[in-house]
Structures are given as C-alpha cells and as structure tokens.
Amino acid sequence: MAGVPPYCSQRVASCGKELVKDSRLSVFRFLSASPNARMSQSIDLGFGRSAAIWSNAHDRMSYERPNGHTFSLYLSGGAGTRRLDGGPDARGRPGVLCIMPQGHSSEWEITDFFEFVHLYVPDDQMRRMFAETFDRDARLMALPEVTFADAPALALRLRQMTEAMLAGGHLLAEEAMTQAIVDLFVDPRYGGMRACAMSGGLAPHVRRRSLDYIEAHLGETIRLQDLADIGQLSAFHFQRMFRASFGVSPNGWVAHRRVERAKAMLSGMEPIAQIASACGFSSQSHMTRAFKLGTGVTPSAYRQRQ
What is the pTM of this model? Predict the structure, then answer.
C-alpha cells in the first residue's frame, strides 16, 4: 500500500516481516486487513511515529492486544459506530477521542460511514517523550483506555495535525503531534502520573547526570562505558536500567537528541555537513539517514519547510 506509515513495519523492510519481529499487529495493520476501511492520507512523523486519515462503513473491527498506542479522533460521522465490548449504548460523533493503549482489546461495529484520524506511537517512543518532557522515570507513565471522550484540548491538537497533513505541512504536523502528547500527559484524566513501586532503574541523580553528560557531548563519540561510569555500573546493567527509566536504549536517546539539535541548527545558515559534525554524526550521509528516520524527511527538505 502506497504511503504506509513506517510504524506498521516496526522499522523492518516490509509489513509482512512485522510478524517475525512482533507477533502482535498494530491497529494500523488490523485496519489495513479490513476490506471496507480506506486510508486517504498518511504521514511519517519520525522514530516510528505516524498518523493516517481513515474512513470506514458497514464493518466490524476487533483489535486483539495490538502493538503500540493509538489515538483516534472522529472527524465526521460516527453515530453508527459503537464499541460492543464495553458500553455498547455509547455512540461516536465528530470531535470525540478514543485512546487504545498497547495491549488493549476491543470490538467495534460500524453501520454508517465515518472519517477519523489515527495517531500511532510505539511504546518506547511514548515513554521516551514522557521521560523527556517531565524528567520522570518512564515507568510512571500510565495510559488508560478511553472511548468516545470529550477532550477539547487534545481534539484541537489532533485536528491541527490533520489539517497540516492535508496541507503537506510536515513540520506543523510534527509540532501538533508533540503538543498533543504533552497535553495528554498533563491531563489528569488520561496521562496522569501514578505512584508505583519500582526497582531496577537508575537513581534520580544518575538519570540527571547521564542526560547532562549526553547533552554536553552530543558532538563527540559517546561510549556506553563512559555513561555507565557515571553510575558506577557495568555497561550491561547501565543499559538495562537506562531503558527501564527512559523507555529507550542509551543509543536511542542519543539518536533522538542529535536529531533534535540538528533540527534547531537547520534554522540557521550553517552547511549541512558542518551541522552533521557538530551533532556527532560521522558524515553528512549518516546524518541524512538518521534525520530521515527521526523526522520522516531529509535535512534539506526540513530546512526548506521551515
């Protein structure tokens, strides 16, 4: 399918290989298998995140423990859509929000045509964004199932993302997506932080010192052992504890921060090769590959879109 968001493939060569890497399908893949659902637009938002505009009618959908988190905003119609396995009397309508967290299961009946937008975010990236935004342990993140909720702030951000998609505004779509997730975390009804017993992660002072070290050395080679020495841990244990605390590996975090620094520098006039060196990439081509994976576009295209 042309325009398939990269999230469906979990960064492998094709969606068919996704079954080898993860036995759970994404909501995108469930919808793609339906003979009635139609995708009209999609966008790659970087680091496995993506969004798509769908329509559906006269269908019955079951999502069995899907991989990744899905946020759904009804754009038009929806009165003929109901969830069969919980509150079957509730019906969809334009502007309502559904949250389908990773691992949930749900069954839906669609009798009339409706249009909706989906935002897909892998679990590791959701946890990374949470940890980065709030300087909190990624294991504190909790996402509930939400069906047909009125959430004006979130709906506004997802609608802005949709409008940017339709207008070809990649940067605006990415910004709206980021703000939508921040708003979600801030809203105590949906993304509120929870108290829980945790073990195996990095101590708060080690988390902070590790991030400070990464930011100070983004333009250089960052070695796992150098990070591990901050917490006086072996490289193996540090890597495991870092992932527990931040949702992604140290390499994943560094890659994200380098892309973010490159995005900031692309607003200036420095040559891309110079930016690549300043951000710790081994070459301009290395930066181009990493930047496209992280944003969905090349550095040159990103600069032009600003």
Answer: 0.76
